[in-house]
Amino acid sequence: MFNSTLIEVAEKTLANNGFRISYEDGCGLAALPEEETTALILCADKIRRKYKGDRITTCSITNAKSGLCTEDCAFCAQSAHHETGIEPHPLMSEEEMVNDALKLHASGANEFSMVTSGFALTDQELETIGRAAGMIKEKTGLKLCSSLGVLTEARAKQLKNSGISRYHHNLETARSFFDHVCTTHDYEDDVQTVKIAKAAGLKACSGGILGLGESWEQRVELAITLRDLDVDSIPVNFLNPIPGTRMGARPLLSPMEALKCIALFRFINPKKDIMICGGREVTLRDLQSWIFTAGANGLLIGNYLTTAGRDIKADMDMIRDLRLVAEKGA
Ligand code: SF4
Fold it and tell me: Residue of the nearest CA to atom 7 in ligand 1?
């Protein structure tokens, strides 16, 4: 039979009466033996179906400005502290960003994000993003998102007024593990950016990368920090070790470990959008279609910032084959 703590927590979560799993119970689920992972996944599937139904969000991104970042995030190919061989480029023109949006919209994406490297943009760059957002809104029904580094209140309002509805800014990992990942800015800078986005009326999209060397307890800690910030959506990435970065030699998570992470995030954030993003293909391989059963209700389709994603048609077919429904644009 299923583990009693698992059943108890699953039933309380499904009861929809404001129950919030504790850090201790979250760690208890994380500590379940391997043979209980499938049971944990099936319970997470029930929670996803209860609160998210059969709708799947398909996010897409464009790498609008690449490389030469002053920050030293240990996993990142775009940090100027790493020699990874990527081709840096300045901010794209409005037309280039609009063309990318049109292509991804035609392929089935319902959300599009303009992503830039760097701690923050210049005022002029922010205006270019704003103009591109207006043009994309005119030409497509895409929901618009952006990920442009740290924010100020004025900039958050400016982005909202330009037609952007969601702001993405990852915490990347647990506060207690952050020093192992980044030494050039504080965790609080990232937390404040999420709060500023929400205060400006933008939806806050914030998650992290698993497999950086954090413990299971720190994975629970991150999921609970995101819950306490009341973010609207949580992108879950798995480390895809890039040669030349400080984490270039790290091992990949196993597929079952990755699926267990997704299930834990669903238990801790039962009503939030959970999208599987970077590292999906290399980490999950043939088990990619399990991400929804494990609790996710979205994925990033198309290419990632500096690495290729798999063919979008394969992802759209996967969603259909699972009798799930890809969300349409706005
Ligand atoms: S994750 Fe973002 S802030 Fe960190 S090094 Fe990469 S581009 Fe810079």
Answer: 117
